[in-house]
Specification:
Blueprint (H helix, E strand, L loop, with lengths): L3 E3 L7 E6 L4 E4 L1 E7 L12 E7 L3 H4 L4 E6 L8 E8 L2 H14 L6 E6 L2 E9 L9 E9 L2 E12 L5 E3 L6
Parallel strand pairs: 1-8, 7-10
Antiparallel strand pairs: 2-3, 4-5, 4-6, 7-9, 8-9, 10-11, 11-12
C-alpha cells in the first residue's frame, strides 16, 4: 500500500483542540482548492473546487491555481468527514493508514504528517448516516506506561457550527 507522507519536521501555530492527557494541541487543518475553469454558464469565475486537505499548507501553496485556506469545521453540504488522529510513532501511523486503505475507497485521501515532533494522520472518509453532520474528529489513544492494553480514548468532534465537543463516535 502506498500513502502520502509529509514528514518534513516543522513548527506550526497550534490549532484549537487541546488534549490534556498528551499535553498537546492538535495541528491546524487546511483545505486545498483550485479555481474552477470558467464555463459558458458559470457567472462566478472564482468558484473553487476542493482537491484535498493537509496539515502542511506550504506543500501545495506554490502550485499555480491552488488556494489554501485554514478550516476549523466542515459545512453541512459536504459528503465527507475528516479524522485527525495522533499516533505514538511513525510505524503505528503507517500501519493505521494501511488498514484504512484496505477498507476505504481509494479516492478518499489519507496522509501522515510530523508536526511539532508529533505524528498525525489525516483521513477523509464518507460521513456515516448515523452521524449528525459532516465533522472533523480529533482522536488519540493514550496508553498507560505500564500496559498497552489499558488505554484512554480521547475524541473531540467539531461539527458545522465550529464548536469542539467531547463525544465518542469512533468508539474506544
Amino acid at each position: 500500500m502506498r500513502h502520502n507522507v509529509s514528514l518534513r519536521k516543522r513548527r506550526t501555530d497550534h490549532g484549537r483542540v487541546w488534549c490534556p492527557s498528551l499535553r498537546l494541541y492538535f495541528p491546524r487543518i487546511f483545505r486545498v482548492s483550485r479555481k474552477a475553469a470558467k464555463g459558458a454558464r458559470q457567472k462566478d469565475p472564482q468558484t473553487l473546487q476542493h482537491i484535498a486537505y493537509t496539515l502542511d499548507p506550504s506543500a501545495m501553496a506554490a502550485i499555480r491555481g491552488c488556494v489554501v485556506d485554514e478550516i476549523d469545521h466542515l459545512h453541512h453540504e459536504v459528503s465527507h468527514s475528516l479524522i485527525l488522529r495522533y499516533h505514538w510513532s511513525r510505524s503505528l501511523a503507517s500501519s493505521y493508514l494501511e488498514g484504512v486503505e484496505d477498507v476505504m475507497d481509494p479516492c478518499n485521501s489519507s496522509e501522515l504528517f510530523e508536526v511539532d515532533d508529533a505524528i498525525f494522520t489525516l483521513t477523509e472518509r464518507p460521513t456515516r448516516v448515523d452521524w449528525p453532520a459532516p465533522m472533523i474528529i480529533y482522536v488519540a489513544e493514550i496508553y498507560d506506561t505500564q500496559s498497552e492494553i489499558c488505554a484512554e480514548h480521547f475524541e473531540v468532534i467539531v461539527g458545522p457550527d465550529g464548536r469542539p465537543e467531547p463525544r465518542e463516535l469512533l468508539g474506544a
